[in-house]
Amino acid sequence: MSDLTRDAERSRADKIALRDRLLTARRALTPSALASAAAAIQDQTLSLVRREQPTSVAAYVPMGREPGGPELVVSLSAHTRVLLPVLLPDNDLDWAAYPGTTSFGDANPLAAGRRGLLEPAGPRLGVGAVAQVGLVFVPALAVDRSGMRMGRGGGSYDRALSRLPSLGSPLVVALLHEGELVDYIPAEPHDRPVDAAITPGGGLTVFGN
């Protein structure tokens, strides 16, 4: 086995171990901690949208214990057009517009897609639509101080982010819980960095990529 192959396998193993630790920490969050974090994340994202005033943003519906809570999209859509991901059979991401500002509940305008992702039923805009927005909010399990992002391992967002014109255009922001902004994440060639991260207590952190 070459040194390069050995280093790649060690890096992959380190990522798996870190991912497991982060998921365990999320599972330990109490309902009150999740609600408090969601409210703070929603305030921070809205503050950024008001400051940047984009005509549209790409976002996602946080599921389970992801930061932001399901009402994140509703709050964003009151201020700008919101595109949501549609998971394709090959795990790439198409995009469709969120259809309204109705709070989630009986009138939820989204339907369950692949892997339980909540998706709009409207026209698909193509995988390249993410490059046409002013801000991109992405899920992450962690981000390090250089902006390297760790997702859940499917590679969907790495593929989507590879279509953006350049780093910083549009601004890509990961949403995190406390403790998920870390010193270092082992990176593989396909991994894509983000420009900034938002945590409930720390607000917006912009990286010097």
Automatic annotation (TrEMBL):
Enzyme Commission number(s) of this protein: 6.3.3.2
Catalytic activity: (6S)-5-formyl-5,6,7,8-tetrahydrofolate + ATP = (6R)-5,10-methenyltetrahydrofolate + ADP + phosphate
Matches recorded under InterPro entries: FTHF_cligase, FTHF_cligase-like_sf, NagB/RpiA_transferase-like
GO molecular function, one term: 5-formyltetrahydrofolate cyclo-ligase activity
Keywords tagged on the record: ATP-binding, Ligase, Magnesium, Metal-binding, Nucleotide-binding
Cofactor annotation: Mg(2+)
Entries under PANTHER family matching the protein: 5-FORMYLTETRAHYDROFOLATE CYCLO-LIGASE, ATPASE INHIBITOR/5-FORMYLTETRAHYDROFOLATE CYCLO-LIGASE
Family of the protein in this entry: Belongs to the 5-formyltetrahydrofolate cyclo-ligase family.
NCBIfam families: MTHFS_bact
Protein name: 5-formyltetrahydrofolate cyclo-ligase
